[in-house]
Write a structure and sequence with these properties.
Elements (H helix, E strand, L loop, with lengths): L1 E8 L2 E7 L5 E11 L5 H11 L9 H10 L4 E9 L2 E11 L10 H14 L13 H13 L5 H13 L13 H4 L4 H14 L1 E8 L3 H10 L1 H4 L31 E9 L5 H14 L6 H9 L5 E7 L4 E9 L3 H16 L5 H10 L9
Parallel strand pairs: 2-6
Antiparallel strand pairs: 1-2, 3-5, 3-6, 4-5, 7-9, 8-9
Length: 367
């Protein structure tokens, strides 16, 4: 597998990943922009609207017909949060040319279709058409309201919100209900145009492909040619974490099981510390041999799930445990004991080597 990238215009990069491991090819477009309270909800709405039609594919029915004609191609889109940035993601997956029943250039069709959907939206009177807007606004409202439905995920979100209150990372990636009603076809389209002219654009093509031919196809595409050079408006560095006292937040619900989440911020933000944090996390809670799993879950039976996760973009670790509510204090104290154990170096060279192996590092790697 070979991963190459080429900046075809300032702020616009093509990534080609040559591999023959799959029978399908994937084309993706990522639009990266700063996370901020003013635009987070509008950004979440944009993929929902773009997926409903473009100038040449004017309806969901036409899009589905196009995908069917492309041997059942799969199109998807969504929103994500990476560090202090919001990323709008669009994907189109198709069968590779050599598996087609007749000679066709399906990768060319895939690239053209996805770029059309992202960069050439259906409009009327210099605004998005309102045909689907109310429906999509209601869908977004349901998504935001439903964040409490998954209690484990919600506990993690609340921990992030409290730890990073007042900073971009503390924002919910789908935005806020009170902002939805302010969105209309005109102001959303104006925001879209601004976003497209300023954001960081990454176009990915993965599969058994001719890399130079793919780059030429994208570079010559009319929807790409109309894109301007830009100084991309995204956060290259994360907002520094402000050290504060330990804080405990408890939200009660009429349930017997609960979710406990601890957030640990690593204040030293450099490459060497990040490698060390990956190993630290693997030993603490990142595997089935970790302290969280073996001691909190297995030995003491205080949690039905127990793990930790390292977010390298924010240089922080989140410890999570699904517990019986009556065991909250016992579990919390036992987790603190594992953290203290790590602080005191109560782990072996074998633990470190196993952590490296799990992260595909050679034992001679310098961490």
């Amino acid at each position: 597998m070979r991963d190459n990238k080429k900046e075809i215009r300032k702020g616009i990069t093509i990534h080609t990943i040559k591999t023959n491991s799959f029978k399908t090819d994937l084309v993706a477009v990522f639009l990266t922009t700063k996370l901020n309270r003013e635009n987070v909800t509008k950004n979440a709405m944009i993929p929902m609207i773009l997926s409903k039609g473009s100038k040449s594919l004017e309806s969901i029915e036409e899009i589905n017909k196009k995908l069917e004609d492309m041997y059942g191609a799969a199109f998807d889109c969504g929103i994500d949060k990476t560090g202090d940035n919001q990323v709008l993601k669009f994907y189109l997956e198709t069968i590779n040319n050599k598996y087609l029943p007749q000679e066709e250039n399906i990768i060319q069709e895939s690239i053209s279709t996805l770029l059309e959907l992202v960069f050439n939206p259906k409009t009327k009177n210099n605004a998005f058409t309102s045909e689907y807007l109310d429906t999509e606004k209601e869908k977004l409202k349901i998504i935001i309201e439903g964040k409490k439905d998954n209690k484990a995920q919600y506990a993690n979100l609340r921990c992030q919100e409290e730890m990073y209150k007042g900073t971009p990372f503390g924002l919910y990636k789908y935005g806020y209900i009170e902002d939805i009603e302010k969105i209309d076809a005109n102001n959303l389209y104006e925001h879209y145009k601004k976003l497209i002219s300023e954001c960081k654009i990454d176009i990915f093509v993965s599969g058994d492909i001719g890399e130079e031919a793919v780059i030429d196809l994208i570079n010559q595409n009319p929807n790409v040619q109309k894109l301007n050079e830009r100084e991309p408006e995204y956060n290259r560095k994360n907002t520094p974490f402000e050290k504060h006292d330990k804080k405990e937040i408890i939200e009660k619900a009429d349930v017997t099981q609960g979710n406990l989440v601890l957030g640990l911020s690593i204040l030293d933000d450099n490459k060497k510390e990040k490698y060390a944090a990956i190993v630290y996390n693997a030993i603490l809670g990142g595997s089935a041999t970790s302290k969280m799993f073996q001691i909190v879950r297995e030995k003491h039976s205080l949690a039905y799930t127990a793990s930790s996760n390292y977010l390298r973009h924010k240089n922080c670790i989140f410890i999570r445990a699904g517990i019986e509510i009556d065991n909250y204090e016992k579990t919390l104290n036992l987790i603190y004991e594992q953290i203290e154990d790590m602080k005191n170096g109560n782990f072996t060279d074998e633990d470190i080597e196993n952590a490296k192996v799990r992260n595909n590092w050679n034992s001679k790697d310098d961490t």
